[in-house]
Amino acid sequence: MLQFDEETARVLEDAYQGADVSQRRRASFDALLPQPGDRILDLGCGNGLLTLELARAVGAAGHVTGLDASPDMLAAARNRLEGRANTTLAEGDAARLPFEPESFDKAVSLQVFEYLTDRRLALRALHKVLKPGGRLVVGDMHWDTLAWHSDNTTRMNRMLEAWNRHMAVRDLPAKLPSEMRSCGFEVQQMQPLAVCDITLRPDGLAAMMIQLIRAFAVDIGATDPDDAAAWTREQQELAAEGRFFMSLTHFVCTARRQ
After folding, report:
1. The pTM is what?
2. pLDDT tens profile 101-123
3. How far apart are CA 104 and CA 63, in angstroms?
4. Phi, psi torsion values for 99, nearest 5 degrees
5. Which 3 state secondary structure label does DSSP give 187?
């Protein structure tokens, strides 16, 4: 697990509530179509931002359950959801959901499935806890769409190859529809959402990724701190010169439990 210092934690919190990540969260929210009275599972709820937004939408008659494997993330979610009677948080595994069959009207998962080595186990678990006809929304990156400018392509490739090791699958959106169908879901829509940064915004996706990739590459021994720092400085210098470019496409897949 990466250990984040105070500066990195601040960058992450700003990015989670910045425009790029908020748009991804909103795309999943809109695809889920939350209604008053809905019972919703937020699988991989993280720090609870989407859980809170859904809780507002379903109202007092509805309920949102957030599940995450990280105690640290759940602690942040509890702080965010304090006083919300229509929410519950639980620690657990996506493949072994601790809920009764047909407990939920809808389920949503935002940037979780790309980290799962056996996604069908999670999909079967979701099929079990969703009611017949229940809606499932899964949002994840297609990392093969990443385009990131650097004058030092060798170093950039080294950093990105290191980053590849933090996920189970790079092209999740290409694989997900067939996996969903094999687990009893009808796929209804696949919606792309591109992020394209030509400035290095403090609350943007690129700024967050620079912090994460730099720390991860050093942590796994793929590079040394000086090399990672040089990569970060180059991106900052490119931004100062008006030559920064990073683009990545997120996809939101909507399905119905048959």
Report:
1. 0.94
2. 999 999 999 999 999 999 999 99
3. 9
4. -130, 155
5. strand
